[in-house]
Amino acid sequence: MILTVKKDANPTQLDGLMEWLKAQNVEVHISEGTYNCVLGLVGDTSHIDMDLISGLNIVENVQRVSEPFKNVNRKFHPADTIIDVCGHKIGGGNFQIIAGPCSVESEEQICTIAKDVKKNGANLLRGGAFKPRTSPYAFQGMRNEGLKLLLEAKKETGMPIVTEIMDLSHIDLFADVDIIQVGARNMQNFELLKELGHSKKPILLKRGLANTLQELLMSAEYIIAGGNENIILCERGIRTFETATRNTLDISAIPVLKEKSHLPVIVDPSHSGGIARLVRPLALAATAAGADGLIIEVHNDPAHALCDGPQSLTPDEFAEVVKSVNAVREVI
Amino acid sequence: MILTVKKDANPTQLDGLMEWLKAQNVEVHISEGTYNCVLGLVGDTSHIDMDLISGLNIVENVQRVSEPFKNVNRKFHPADTIIDVCGHKIGGGNFQIIAGPCSVESEEQICTIAKDVKKNGANLLRGGAFKPRTSPYAFQGMRNEGLKLLLEAKKETGMPIVTEIMDLSHIDLFADVDIIQVGARNMQNFELLKELGHSKKPILLKRGLANTLQELLMSAEYIIAGGNENIILCERGIRTFETATRNTLDISAIPVLKEKSHLPVIVDPSHSGGIARLVRPLALAATAAGADGLIIEVHNDPAHALCDGPQSLTPDEFAEVVKSVNAVREVI
Amino acid sequence: MILTVKKDANPTQLDGLMEWLKAQNVEVHISEGTYNCVLGLVGDTSHIDMDLISGLNIVENVQRVSEPFKNVNRKFHPADTIIDVCGHKIGGGNFQIIAGPCSVESEEQICTIAKDVKKNGANLLRGGAFKPRTSPYAFQGMRNEGLKLLLEAKKETGMPIVTEIMDLSHIDLFADVDIIQVGARNMQNFELLKELGHSKKPILLKRGLANTLQELLMSAEYIIAGGNENIILCERGIRTFETATRNTLDISAIPVLKEKSHLPVIVDPSHSGGIARLVRPLALAATAAGADGLIIEVHNDPAHALCDGPQSLTPDEFAEVVKSVNAVREVI
Amino acid sequence: MILTVKKDANPTQLDGLMEWLKAQNVEVHISEGTYNCVLGLVGDTSHIDMDLISGLNIVENVQRVSEPFKNVNRKFHPADTIIDVCGHKIGGGNFQIIAGPCSVESEEQICTIAKDVKKNGANLLRGGAFKPRTSPYAFQGMRNEGLKLLLEAKKETGMPIVTEIMDLSHIDLFADVDIIQVGARNMQNFELLKELGHSKKPILLKRGLANTLQELLMSAEYIIAGGNENIILCERGIRTFETATRNTLDISAIPVLKEKSHLPVIVDPSHSGGIARLVRPLALAATAAGADGLIIEVHNDPAHALCDGPQSLTPDEFAEVVKSVNAVREVI
Questions:
Q1: Given CB 3.0 to 4.6 Å as the disulfide criterion, which of A28, C238, D157, D250 pairs with D114?
Q2: Which domains does chain A have, with CATH numbers?
Q3: Cβ–Cβ under 8 Å, residues B152 and B176
Q4: How far apart are CA B189 and CA A196, in angstroms?
Q5: What is the ipTM score, two decimals?
Q6: β-strands B161-165, D88-90: how paired?
Q7: Contact residues on chain C for D300, CB-CB shorter than 8 A
Q8: For A69-87, what is each residue's pLDDT tens digit?
Q9: Quick check: B169 contacting A, CB < 8 Å?
């Protein structure tokens, strides 16, 4: 870590800083310049909060030389992590398509879709039981009941299921879920992340709407620090000034995350654009950019199932997307 | 709500949409144009999810005419909400300064600061017991123990206390806390918001780093929908492309929120800038823009208490800020 | 255009607004609601400035139903525009790769690279003569001299040349340039756009760092309104909160622009990421998402030509990227 | 400047980098770490382009220790710059209010407003002759004719005039203008900035919609590097994800710019919010935060002068704002 301290730094504050830094078990190398003084911290600085230091009046700026994440860092773990979900591998060259409806609505609905997507190339089933909704007046999901129906669909089709957890108090309800999804809004719900660190289940960690890739990796570090190494990172679009799409898919996140970390990276083309007709181009782009998988919304009846209609494909559209995705995978 | 539907809309999808809209108990007025068809929805549309509709292939765009929030909307409740915290009023022309350290570190620390800030013009005491930290390796706060020390400080000084909750499972620990703070990262932790809606305690709801003012009001709507009307909104800076400050204080949020809602609005000048020397100008700006209060970090020993040093003032700097803030309040 | 006017609108202001609206030659349909009044404007509203109206005290919000751009709008011109540059077609299924160095440095450099990239699959040559640089102390390009060297390279290789114009006063110097590039910083240099509208040369219009897709199309509308229909749109990354990459490539821009407009859309994977090792994945993603071409930086000597080294590929890396790009094109 | 180079850096590239760095006349100090190697550059690095280096494959990150701007840097010029415009001083404790209409429409209009705002406390007159408009179909200003009318108003009232230049080819037309404004969209029109550097006139440099404060200072550096030290910086709101206001006024920009530079900083509360009723709170906030002045839009007839109506005040509203602004100035 490199600190640039103001030339006119108050000596008492500077001494306080130096003292504190040494208490953090890091060596401090000082080099005086004409207009400022540079402190180089040598040792493990991962536990030092940059914001705390950068806020100090005497500090001009702070720069990390080594990343603050350790266990998810490819530098310390060069080999790709491969996650096995009931025999379906993700990462290390293994590509998986997760598909299903936005929300679970009925046994008939979820089972029909499950069979459809399985037939058309999906190996894992997604479906929302607990739904984070901006409005308290909007449908909040079937919750508990929805989880039961997902397990029904799993029994009927043999597909492992992926569904979102909204609070750590629900964790026992997720005992039979195969992959627990942490939604974008909970990416920095640290109490939840700690709890999931004590589980052994694969965690699908979605990037927050306005979180940097480093923050995403730090949230993964929370889970891995608890002992759970089964983490799948998911890019699902970030919030920018552009309003033509609901979110802006950060396609560069794929190569950057795979360079910095050994964890698998999948993409959600449905929520990124928020429009069904964008799912195909975004799914192809993500595949071409090196994603380890896709999580796509599919519903059975566009005309009537409006709740998950918008950004969802019909089974036929889905089949067509899978075909193109596989074609792209073969050439890259 | 105004929907613009594509001219070449697939009739089956359009019928499905019309059917679904009617099922939402809203009247639909249709007006055909040359290049598109406009649907005007009349009735209560607050429960309709715009994103769901805007994602439909046949929909060109959607625009709310009436806001999706009801109980926090000034239109339906013109008078300012005034919140009384142990006799200290916030809102409706009543201005309060909340001050204290970033983290509770020891009884001596919290009590010393409490007395200092009380003497210098703060009526409420803030202090972090549960700390949301980006890194799992950083100090996570004294948690339970910290809450006890805050109550000690309350007993010694008589100041009501404000502290952050990180998970709904902790709610019983907050029984004696006077104002429960929901941090920026939990602004859309809907399960937590629902739980707080069933409490009667004042809630200090901080705006998320990348949440719009409407989303902030929708989160407040979650709390009020549960029956708890004691909500204080807090602007604490948003995430933008600018890196010279930790966050960008959205000063316009104050007049906009006060125009749209009857809830009191306070500002956190400490986290907005992330630098102690910015607290004074930002506190004065917030006061001049019409804020109902401020929440400011103060610590007792800049040289040694680094953990809450950076964006914190010394008691003397704090006293000076309070003096200027009061001077500005008198002239506006 | 749909205007929502406040219920308590000052009648004089409302009359003024109505009067003004009628003066714009649009019909106004009024529908009164309980909490507001909705005005529907029918007719050509493309010349009406939304910002002006949305700023009015009596106006709650404004929404365009029809887009403000006309001549670049696919609705009014469904067929893809195909631009022919010395026999090389762009758009309408025709894909082109433009390659070359960031800056022209010497005749030997530009000619060597030109031959290299031509051999490896590029049909057009790019190279910077006038360089927009953030710092006045940084190399500003060879300017005039650089243009001459580009024309030399064209003579030697027969490749049409693409280079950036920085001010309309330079336009005569660009008489022999085949495609004039408008850089991101000049996307809203309206005086320059007007001037280029009177030219017949193909214009490569780059999206501004923080401009919406609609603003990009409005800038294209400036050029086409002047009579020049030869416009190529270019996505080159936008500014967001993410700092891991220099800019964030907005991959969704490709399908969205191609849906809204008939103009060809190309992508610059070099500037989007700002890192050479990101060029390949971003180029493949852009191709898979349906781009009509790519503009890629290539230099001849990574170890020494630092000025254009960073985000540039070596000729061999470039050859490899072209091979993969073509493979992806075949399968989609 | 601190470079962090990858541990596995290709030696040829590393040699190339070292060679190039030395050619920039900077000393390079190397310190090897376990996972990377840190290069410290000592000397004048202001001419080195960080982006170029950070893009290199072998470079992990780059951090400036000294700012890239020199002549506008307070470190090298501690005293406030005071700009004298016909006897009206700006900066160094001197506060000025610039007011006038968005666009010049007629002699009667501009002269009436000029007298009004002068009577109510403005010392300088603003008015748009050349108007940058997003749409080619919108009113582009009276241009030349508008400048003549502004000079008329100056003759009648004695107020110095401030108006925007859109292209360097117009510079002769601005011979009698007192302050030349560079609009947000031209903040990085470097050819224009160079030209203005050769003028002696005060330049009002507006921050670009998505430009960092450092980029604003670098643009000022372009002007000062040409020999013109009469620069007034202007914060006018930045583009963020928030849509409740047209732009987000970055209030922190005032203290940050004044700390980093000796140039005066004024604020435009009219364009920041884009809504007349926000002008008062934003003007007061800017004053309280330490701005050296304000530039406010005022028009004479809200009901009919719609073009500049939205974000403009009436003369009476303006008078009221000036009164409050002065009251705030007295107490801080």
A1: D157
A2: 2-63 (3.30.70.1140), 83-331 (3.20.20.70)
A3: no
A4: 17
A5: 0.92
A6: unpaired
A7: none
A8: 999 999 889 999 999 999 9
A9: yes
